[in-house]
Design goal:
Oligomer: homodimer
Shape of chain A: elongated
Largest interface: A-B, 34 and 34 residues
Chain lengths: 90, 90
């Protein structure tokens, strides 16, 4: 039986974008300092990044949908010069 | 045998912060529009949030370390009025 075409196959794909190791993160450093001042002395460091939840339709082929989102992430969501990204299902 | 105290037990805990459901995300909406203009017509919506990688020392008791970071997240990393957060090990 063919799947019903009026019910779109929707999936949420998560893209985590972080600064590459070695790239300084002044915002994260400021947050780490604030944590320690607030009494969280166990905090050694903080790195701040971005998280995108991308809802896509026609995601019948999970591998293909992830490949498309990887392409999109490299083009629009992350700056490949200084950032790296990871993709997973929500 | 007691663990060596000069080697600190370090763990990385990830805090994902997202806007609560129902709170509008104009930045995410703009990104979703850009995705479609770039030819990614399968993108229905994008929600943008933050991801923090917090490195903590003395994390021998994983449950306790996570509880401390949850407290910290509610106090400093997320705005509980409009945001929600999730915590997991890296």
């Amino acid at each position: 039986m063919r799947p019903c075409r009026t019910l779109r196959n929707v999936a949420t794909i998560v893209v985590d974008v972080m600064l590459k190791t070695g790239i300084r993160d002044p915002q994260g450093e400021a947050i780490a300092g604030a944590c320690r001042r607030l009494g969280y002395g166990e905090v050694i460091s903080v790195r701040q990044g971005k998280r995108f939840e991308v809802e896509v339709s026609d995601a019948e082929d999970a591998m293909q949908a992830a490949a498309r989102i990887a392409e999109l992430a490299g083009e629009l969501l992350a700056n490949p010069v200084i950032e790296e990204f990871a993709i997973h299902r929500a």
